[in-house]
């Protein structure tokens, strides 16, 4: 989460620096959304540990988090009152969401999103550690 602040992450909706807000630990793919997805056995498709993966979290303002509510990424990413349609890529880039991960969000593909974002975060950490 500290890397987000160092990387200049801005709030999705308000587009200003996240350090100026009461921050929420935001699930990019919302808990409520993921919990309602059922697997082949009829139970929830995802366990809490996978839902709460660090690769599924970022920091945004509490007010933006409330506005997103229980929406799927494909829904809230198209809502100009949540994220500026003209700056979406730049805003998401600062939250370690590249074009590939963004496409997975638009398709509500959680598993592929986790892999893509995890790889991006690991590369960043390695570069900071000079590994």
Walk me through the structure.
The chain has 131 residues and is mainly α. It has one domain. 45% of the residues lie in helices and 8% in strands. The protein is built from eight helices and two strands; from the N terminus they run H-E-H-H-E-H-H-H-H-H. A two-stranded antiparallel ribbon has the order 1-2.
Q: Which runs of at least 5 residues are low in confidence (pLDDT < 50)?
A: none
From the helix content, strand content and strand pairing, which structural class follows?
Answer: mainly alpha
Q: Topology as H/E string? A: HEHHEHHHHH
What number is the mean pLDDT?
Answer: 86
Separation of termini?
A: 20 Å
Number of strands: 2
Proportion of helical residues? 40-55%
Count of helix runs: 8
Physical arrangement of strands within the biggest beta sheet: 1-2
Content of β-strand: 5-15%
Radius of gyration: 14 Å
Overall number of structural domains: 1
Based on Cα principal axes, name the global outline: globular
Main β-sheet: number of strands, strand sense, barrel status? 2 strands, antiparallel
